[in-house]
Amino acid sequence: MGKKIYLDGEFVERENAKVSxxxxxxxxxxxxxxxxxxxxxxxxxxxxxxERLYMSAHMINLDPGVNINEMEEIVVETVxxxxxxxxxxxxxxxxxxxxxxxxxxKCPRATVxxxxxxxxxxxxxxxxxxxSLVTASTRRNIPEALNPRxxxxxxxxxxxxxxxxxxxxxxxxxxxxxEGYVSECTGDNIFVITEERTVLTPPPYVGSLTGxxxxxxxxxxxxxxxxxKETPFTLFELYNAEESFLTGTAAEVIPVVEVDDRRIGYGKxxxxxxxxxxxxxxxxxxxxxxx
Length: 291
Ligand code: PXG
Known about the structure:
By secondary structure, the chain is of the alpha+beta class. Helix content is about 30%, strand content about 25%.
């Protein structure tokens, strides 16, 4: 028996989980999605992910066709039906099937699918030794054109930066906005800790996703008594940081020890970062929507 995928009101086997070639999610990247995790039988920050999904959909004038409570049940049921306790969940809403024109008016009904699969974890060595990054020459989408706060199916901007990371032989790339401020990485938010032990992360208006892990980490930093500022900063602050780390649903909290051949701090994961990795993992064991 293969994995059961939720697709438009029913659970189907993986082989039958197919959408039309006329679906505008495929033809135009017209849709939104979420990447969510379950830990030990609890879905972490499910409400927050659903709220962001509905805000993304609202921004692009897309009606998912099911309400947020129904969507919550769809996600829970998908994980349950696959007998998963630790899972990576991909929830997708597309504009649906239309014709070859880009006009969404031709798409009467959104396509909704939900996949729950085993999570592929980053190797533990990255958490112990930290990551090297490069700055991508590809700038982050400008909010006036396609706001990076929309978690849309159009990830070409990030993919182009990821290709630059691949070419440089590193896992992630730092993306700058049009003005040259650090925005985020291709699938992770970025933080720096200054010499004065102030935690900085770019505000969403610089051009980044309002990461759910980011919000949790800002709270954990404040609870540790650290000053946290959402403020624009440049590569100068990043290169000269005491510590730096990335946050994301897949990566959780992952230390950064080198950027563009510059050593960050002592070139090893910093003390605060290591503390946050542990605290975040503890939190994922305690919180979440029971499956
Ligand atoms: N920025 C971008 C552009 C993202 O796509 C994040 C930041 C972190 O946000 P969260 O809410 O997850 O803390 C993301 C999220 C994957 C994968 O398979 C990527 C994300 C989430 C889950 C899986 O690479 N990106």
